[in-house]
Amino acid sequence: MNNNKDGKDWENSLPNDDCNTTMFMNKFTSRLKGGNIYNRRVAIASFPGSGNTWLRHLFHVTTGIWTGSVYFDPKLYHGGFPGEACSCNDSMTFGLKVHDIEHARAVGCTFDDVILVLRSPYSSIVSEFNRRKGQGHTGVASAEDYNSKDWNSYASKKIYQFKSLMPGWLNLCNNFSHEGNPACMIVNYEDLKGNPRGEMKKVLNHLGLPLGRLRCLEAEEMVSGPFHRNHKADDVTRSEHTSPPLCMLNKPIRELLYDVIKNTSSSMQVLKNGDRYVKELNHDLPNC
């Protein structure tokens, strides 16, 4: 994918239809019906390990617009995500990666739309542990890693983090709904994995963006992206251990995870499509 790191301004033109071209944008008046649809701050939100980076890649491919981040990840920046260097209020990018809404507010970031990527906290924590121990966004932890005290410590910390982060996003989405503004969309990770093109069509429709570049996802290499962990990595994690990673945790930590999933499921059950979100939260949760 070609990187336009000079931040070329499209002026009054629309994004390029070339699947291999992604550009920065400046504020410009769209000729599409509805006015300047690009002059917004959209949070691409998630708990770490939920597929945020992958969804950003899919957004780059299907829109031709770079996304930014509240954080700065040098590996992503040097690996093909130049929007990492943009500040949260920079008009060069459209969406912003963010995990913690309170942290975003503390550094002056505000949002008028949210794309929340939802993934089973168990799968997310395993994914992040794989990334941490596997030295990168596509790595896999070893059996020894999951048999270590570090796994218990890491999982416990992350479960508490999930418990603290999710209510902030759910409250923001709820506030948007009460204001009569459907400015929040929840994307299930497993749905995105099973049908990237279909889910991205929903995302683009939600944002009111053109659908012309959805055809770019017909090519498998355009779907995967440089930082998306191969789906087979989850199978490797399962096959390399005599017990699932969850069952290697101390019982109090497992019970904490069960309680967090139960409470979050109760909060999401009342939402539209709540049953689908509950299913996602409990995905791949083994019995120990």
Describe this structure in words.
This protein is α/β, with parallel strands linked by helices. The protein has one domain (2-281): Rossmann fold. Helix content is 44%, strand content 10%. The chain has twelve helices and seven strands. The termini are far apart. Residues 2-13 and 27-35 have low confidence and may be disordered.
At a glance:
It is an enzyme of class 2 (transferase). With 288 residues, this protein is α/β, with parallel strands linked by helices.
What structural keywords apply?
Rossmann fold; 44% helix; single chain; alpha/beta; disordered N terminus; two-stranded parallel sheet; 12 helices; 5-stranded parallel sheet; 288 residues
